[in-house]
Structure formats: C-alpha cells, structure tokens
Amino acid sequence: MSEAPEPSVEDARGFAGVPDSTQRLWTPHRMAYIGGQDKPDDPDDAEQCPFCSAPGRDDEDALIVHRGEVAYVILNLYPYNTGHLLVCPFRHVADYTELTEAEVAEVAALTRTAMRVVREVSSPAGFNLGMNQGEVAGAGIAAHLHQHVVPRWMGDANFLPVVGRTKALPILLADTRAMYAEAWPA
Fold it and tell me: Which residue ranges does the UniProt annotation give for the motif Histidine triad motif (predicted)?
C-alpha cells in the first residue's frame, strides 16, 4: 500500500486582491480594533468599561445621542458606517438573557426610535441590526451588551478601506451626534 502524499499548503500572501471562488476581502484597517485598542484590561470591571463610563461624561464628549430610563443611545467610536449607533443598558450586563423586562423593552424601543431618527436625518436605504453575544461572536466589549444600529446605503461597501487603508466617513462623529440628538423625539 502506498503512502498518501503530504498535503501542500499554499502561501496566502499572494492572494490579496486576487479574486477567486471565496472572494476574500482584506481589511487591514480593522487590526487596531481587533488588537484591542481602547479595550478595558479587565472586561468585567465596570469602572474600565467604556459603556459604563460614557454616561458619567457630557453627552457631546461621550457621543451620547439620547438617555432613557434604563438604557441610552451612543455613536460607535469605531463605526462600520456613518451614523453607526449603539443602544446600551446603563447596567453592566453581558448577556441578553440577563436583561430585566424594563431593559429589554427600552433597548427595543430605543432601537426603533434610532432607526426612525436616522431615516429622518440621513435617509439610509436600510439597516443592519444586531448584538454580538460573547467575544467569539465578535463583541468588541463582550462584558457590556450593546445593540448595533448600522445605517446602510447602496454602494456604501466599497474598496476604499482595502485599497486606500481609509474609511470614508463624510461627517464628523460630533456633527452626527448633534444632528441625531436634535432630531430625537422629546
């Protein structure tokens, strides 16, 4: 019986930018985020948590758009797209199943209102909504639950970040926060 040949491993460095059946997309600009820039040293320490510290700061400085009773809306400091909002409970809680009924209701209501406000101000064609539960699921700050509200426009996913190592955000975060906060219903 003959031995099976050793499997060969291709060097993937030559594949960047070469289309094939898997259509790889290289996003080196995300490495600072993936590497943990600005993440707390101890994710379970609420004092280090950016979602716990933000409500203790001025809304403009913290990029908070709206404060509710048990949750609030804040702009994402590392947005996937212009106008990327996060809906967070004030309480330091990691898992959706640990939310109180009041927190579940307000996170849902604030998400709906955020979509309405963003539609009014920015006219997106659609949205991505979601929660990444756990670090393995993509949660950048896994210890504090947050709902993503990401406005989307036709053609907004271009190759500028890959080719030019640049993400084009046509408006400053502070200006976006001000417009959304002003449009938020009383």
Answer: 144-148
pTM for the full predicted model: 0.74
> What is the three-class DSSP state of 45?
coil
Backbone dihedral angles phi then psi of residue 25, each to the nearest 5 degrees = -125, 120
Task: Answer for the pair 64, 129: CB distance below 8 angstroms, yes or no.
Answer: no
Spell out the CATH class of 26-183.
alpha beta
Residue 102 contacts residue 96 (beta carbons within 8 Å): no
CB 107 within 8 A of CB 147: yes
Active site amino acids: 146
Reply yes or no on whether the pLDDT at 185 is more than 70: yes
pLDDT tens string 119-138 = 999 999 999 999 999 888 88
